[in-house]
Amino acid sequence: MQRIPALDITPAQSGEKIHVRLFSGRFQTLRRLISWPLLLAYFGLAWVNINGQQALLFSIEDRRLYFFGTQWGWHDFPVLAGVLIIAAIALFAASAVVGRIWCGTACPQSVWTWLFLRVEEVTEGPAWTRKRMDEKGLTTEQRLRRVSKHALWLLLAAATAITFTGYFVPVRELVPETLLGEASLTTGIWLITMTALTYLNAGLVREKICLHACPYSRFQSVMFDDNTRTVTYDKTRSSDCIDCSLCVQVCPTGIDIRDGLQAACIDCGACIDACDSVMDKIKKPRGLITYNSVEKIRTGNSPILRTRTLAYGVVISVAVVVLGSFIAQRDSIVVDIQRDRQQLYYQTVNDQTCNSYQLEVEYFAPGSHRVAVAIQGLKQAQLSGPATLLVPENGVATQQYQVCVDTAALSRGAYRSDIEFVIAAGDEKVVRGTTFIVGR
Known about the structure:
Blueprint: H1 26-45, E1 49-50, E2 53-54, E3 56-59, E4 64-67, E5 70-73, H2 77-98, H3 101-105, H4 108-124, H5 127-136, H6 140-165, H7 171-179, H8 185-205, H9 207-213, H10 216-223, E6 230-233, H11 246-249, H12 270-281, E7 289-292, H13 294-299, H14 307-329, E8 333-339, E9 346-347, E10 352-363, E11 369-376, E12 382-384, E13 388-391, E14 396-406, E15 416-425, E16 428-437
């Protein structure tokens, strides 16, 4: 199977500043229909509360993730890993079918870049005005416009940084503390860093992230084949091109799609909208630049369901089943048992052998809970310590226990025996094993 070469042709490599011309059309409408709900979700979800708790919060202090009324802990890391793996495979599958649709419509770098470009056009004017300003120098009015642009960029970057931080620190506490200057030094440094990175990435660096920092652009051709739908220039209709360069002017990465598939192309479709408008004006059919596959253009037939995409579908299905099974079997109770290593065992005056254990219990559910503690696995063993523990909300219950057995009842010649702690709350029960040192 012949692969599409990923060319690396772009005027941005020469260091020339790109003045992106904003254009309307069906692909840009699609991008807005996808990106605006994502933006609203990003800025809005941090403020949603469920039963007095932030709906989505990665709490470092509590060592847990609050997710729409449920709680997840460090022991649930395989779930997060599974979600990320499935998301990555889904991205690869989408890439095999429709190219870099994620990059052009939903990638945060692209979404924020288009947002900053919109601010730039509102404050400084369209692309040709901005280019003339850079070539001929700035007037006083233009300097004020540029200052206002950067001020709005910084304001938007700060709002982005505060919202992002609000998913790790409760946002209803973070915002007033930040506005009043009462945030901790660590939080302040983090907010400044995030603001600066957002400002640089979306405002100043822009396409260079896609060109040099994004690894996806470097290995995209591995997932592409002749049946992959991408933004494509139909060379069989090259005589219809009038060299207006509008496709280059609207490209956020500054490439010329007529040179073929390139690593910098993010499949945003801006060049398609621009070219279609030109074709309409010169009474030519649309589709000189189209979102299509090479095979479709060449033969008129390009199947979506093929060996590669079916394989992706099977892998995703299996991964979802495995992840669902893990979630269904997860415990809300997490138990950690630590033996007293200062004194492995001791004997009492009534000839009992005892071991000491420290028990830590976390309950990943809203509210405080009482759990029952018992032991099993060792005959005639006696548990010294409270029979129930109160696990505080968002906290850990810690308690010292002693397990004692009549020395005469222990197996001769054995130096250790298996023992299990049983922690139960309602219908949930967790059994954790440890060892009992005999010390003969």
